[in-house]
Design brief:
single chain, alpha+beta, Dihydrolipoamide Transferase, seven-stranded mixed sheet, five-stranded mixed sheet, 20 strands, 23% helix
Amino acid sequence: MAVVDFALPDLGEGLTESELVTWHVAEGDSVELNQILAEIETAKALVELPSPFAGKIKKLYHPEGTTVLVGAPLIAFEIDGGPDEPAAEDGGQKEERQSVLVGYGPPIDSDKKSTRRAKKGASAPAAAPAAASGSEPEVVAESPRSTPPVRKLARDLGLDLRTISGTGKNGLITREDVEAAFSGAPEHAPSAAPAAAAGLQVAAAPIPRGERETRTRIQGVRKFTAAAMVQSAFTAPHASEFLTIDVTPTMELIAELKGSRQFAGKRINLLTIVAKALCIAVQRNPSVNSRWDEAAQEIIQFNYVNLGIAAATPRGLMVPNIKDADSLDLAGLADALSALVETAKSGASSPAELSGGTISITNIGSFGIDAGTPILNTGEAMILALGAVRRQPWEFNGEIALRQVLTLSVSFDHRLVDGEQGSKFLADVGAILAKPAMLLAMI
């Protein structure tokens, strides 16, 4: 038998560290190739880490909740020696090995994929004792079926998922099941109202009665988001502008599109139209779609739009983006936004979806807010905030009428975007929303 160390890989984002959230194996367990070993949380996503070997877990180097540096030993395996796997010498020397496909493990046969989940070991702390030499590994039950955000919520509330019955599809344990178990409510209580499509509001976990303070360790997405916001706020000189417009024509257009055959079954809303207006305005004002490269002393102007949508998810604030959003027509944008919302709402946005954005939208109107001064997503030159639509008196055709009005806000990096360029971009978006027919004059 050879003893091989598996180091924490770079999960594809150039990150220097990740947090070990949950072990799915214990020391002494036998594992198969690509069996899930642990959940690792990066600044971008919650990633399931597959095993690069078939063998036995000899040592777990870190307990759950530990921040581990990329390249640091994570697990020691005992594996069978072979032509390419020489056995360890008697001195106990170890061989270091890395995953074939960084962060995701080597490919597996299709007949094994369906059984990979069923063969997971139950999670155990790193301090669990190793199995006695020569003894069979302890047989453990399959991990309860739930999503990573739900498992994290259960851990935060001190609940064992194995004691909770799932009311979701095929027995999936939902967030509502965990909250109901914590509060003592019936397991089959009605689910909470769905999250707002753009803002993705998520109900906070109930606070235990009798506690005057609740302390939560700063970790995971919250930790990385805080660092990114501080870096953005104190690196890029922010400037903000506001524009209040009558969007009644756009709201009428949305109602018309919803009734058309072309958009049947598609989620068409104000955010869809704003996303399209932004892509057109970027073409006319390309400086807002750029990045300041301090190390290279260059300004990188993007000739494509990877459109970020700020979302409040179960794991915290995230900004997944739609790749090449400028190449999509309105129907394609509607589909892409729907997919982004569903993925973000489930907390399953991948590192690729959370990186590479060039410009962003935050829909603060979904929370009933009229305007704000958003902080730039790190590395981007512009962010557009979409306020709430309100019926209010407005000048129309020389008279006062009740119209649907909203306020647009932009924040931009003044190193990259001058006041004139920022103003023209905002005016273009506003012109399209006030008079959608203006699209014909802009493209």
